[in-house]
Amino acid sequence: MKPFCFSLSGIYESEGYAWEQAGKIWDLRELRGTDGYLDPETEQFLEAELGRKKETKELPRLRLLDSGNYHYMTRLWLTRMDQPFCLLVYDNHTDMQLPAFGGLLSCGGWIAAALEELEKLCQVILVGPDEEACSQVEDRLKEKVVFLSREHLASLKKEEILQELKGILAGNDLPLYLSIDKDVLGTEDAQTTWSQGDMSLQTLAGCVKQTLECAEQVPFKIAGVDICGECDRESAHDSTSNDKANRELLELFLPIRGK
Length: 259
Description:
eight-stranded parallel β-sheet, 10 strands
C-alpha cells in the first residue's frame, strides 16, 4: 500500500525514498497554527477535509506525518475509527502531557486526548519512553495503557522484546492502529526534532514485523499506520539516516494489500 504524505514543513521534498514512494501528497505548508499545537480553526478545517477524503476513498491506511511536531495528526485519524480498537505507539515520549494552552491539541498530549475523548479506544501499548516519564502520567490515564519503558527494553535481548510484544498482541483481537515516531530510535539511526531514545532500527523493524505476523496469526486487522519523526527542514542535508529508516519501515508496509 502506497503512503499518503502530509507535507506540513516541506521536509519530505528534501528526502528521497519517502517522497518517491508517496501515492498521494497533501501540501499543508500554508496552514497556520500547526507547529506543535493545532489551532482550533485549523483543526476544524482538517477534520472536514479528512472526512471528505475518507468518503472519496482518498486516504490510504499508511500515512507519513512529517516531524514529531505533527504527531497530533494521529489523534485526528483515530476519531474515524468506527469500532473498538487498540493503539500501538513507538515513541521516546509518552505524549500524555495535559495541554498548557486552553485545551489545544498538541504533539505532546495527543494520546491523553485520545484516551479521554475516544470511547472506542480500548488500550494503548506505548513502547519507548523512560520510566520517569511513564511514572508522571496521571493514574486515570494509566488504566488503559501498557508501558514498555526504555529501561525495561534495555534489559532484554531483541528476541525477548519480540516475545514480550507477541504476548501482549496475542491477547488482542481488535483492530490495531500503529503509530511510529522515529525519535524512539538512537541518533545513529535517525535525526529528529526531539530528544531521542536508544532503540536500534533493527529492533524497531523486528517489532513491526512481529506485529504484522501477529495480525495474521491471531488474527486482527491493521486499521492504520503512520510514521513521523523527520528532522527540521534546515537539517535535511544531514538526514540520510532518516531516509534509510523510512526505507526500511516503509518496505515492511508497502506489500500490504489495500489502501
